[in-house]
Amino acid sequence: MISQPLLERIIREAGDIALTYFRDLKHLNVDKKSPRDFVTAADVAVEKFLQTKLSENYPQYGFWGEESGQSENQTNRWIVDPIDGTHSFSRGQYYWSISVALEIDGEIVFGAVYAPALDDYYCATKDEGAWRNGKPISVSDLDELGDAMIGTGFACLRSYLEQNNLERFCRIAQLTTGQRRLGSAAVDICLVADGQLDAFWEQELNLYDVAAGALIAKEAGATVTDFQGNAGIFPKQILVTNGKIFNQLLPLM
Ligand code: IPD
Ligand code: CA
Ligand code: CA
Predict the structure, then answer these.
(1) Can you give the pTM of this predicted structure?
(2) What is the mean pLDDT of residues 217-242?
(3) Is any ligand 1 atom within 6 A of the Cβ of residue 82?
(4) How confident is the model at residue 83 (pLDDT cuts 50, 70, 90)?
């Protein structure tokens, strides 16, 4: 069906394109899709490269990219965020990533999240485990919410939502030891998969932000639910935990 080594080569090459722009930020063209949502020449170049390469090698699959939209075949498709964490990218920070997922008949069967500035390549194929730079990864063993390090984001503020994440964050932050807002939901979810975070949640994301990371996290032993505890990938309300603190965290969502 797909070749993981070929996909890694393609995604790493896309990372090289992104790094070319990242190393010359003073000449980076940055536009606003909305007052708090950015797109750069790097996003567009990376997405165009991925669409070309994935379509050449896998013409049977459609393509949905954050910046270019959906192709006609949307049953079996690549779901791509060319740069997740564009705001961080545009300011020279390291937490940004390229997220590529393959959806077949409504199920995510392959996911890769590559963070070029960190040189971390996370990937998973359904039922075949999760990997970081070729080594198997798994969620943390931490089982006390009070000792947890959690991650979150504030896409909701980008949409000026009244029902946003601020009250939830303050409630949970007071009951945990560490809190991180690193700037790339795709990387945040992979950090749960890799045991670097014990949980992550965010509202108002899109499928291209979370599809690849959610598969990687599930294959690493994470729970992936909505804020009511329903299992599945719900970009508007995604909660990813190491499983051990799920029952302590869910009532606080
Ligand atoms: C953003 C990042 C960020 C999250 C935002 C997303 P983008 O992706 O994932 O962590 O909080 O809501 O939109 O817009 O840079 O691709
Ligand atoms: Ca994104
Ligand atoms: Ca993006």
Answers:
(1) 0.97
(2) 98
(3) no
(4) very high
Task: Please check whether residue 4 is in contact with residue 114, taking contact to mean a CB–CB distance below 8 angstroms.
Answer: no
Residues of the chain with CATH 3.30.540.10: 4-136
Residue whose CB lies within 8 A of the most ligand 1 atoms, among 88, 99, 159, 184, for a mutation test: 184
Which stretches of 77-165 are DSSP H helices? Answer: 86-90, 155-158
User: How many Cβ atoms from other residues are within 10 Å of residue 101's Cβ?
Assistant: 28
| Nearest atom, ligand 1, residue 89 CA | 15
CA of 182, closest atom in ligand 1? 10
What was the pLDDT predicted at 71? Answer: 83
**Which of these CATH numbers, 1.10.10.10, 3.40.190.80, 3.30.750.24, 3.40.50.720, describes 145-252?**
3.40.190.80
Sign, CA torsion 109/75/224/86 = positive
Q: Which CATH superfamily is domain 4-136 in?
A: Fructose-1,6-Bisphosphatase, subunit A, domain 1 (3.30.540.10)
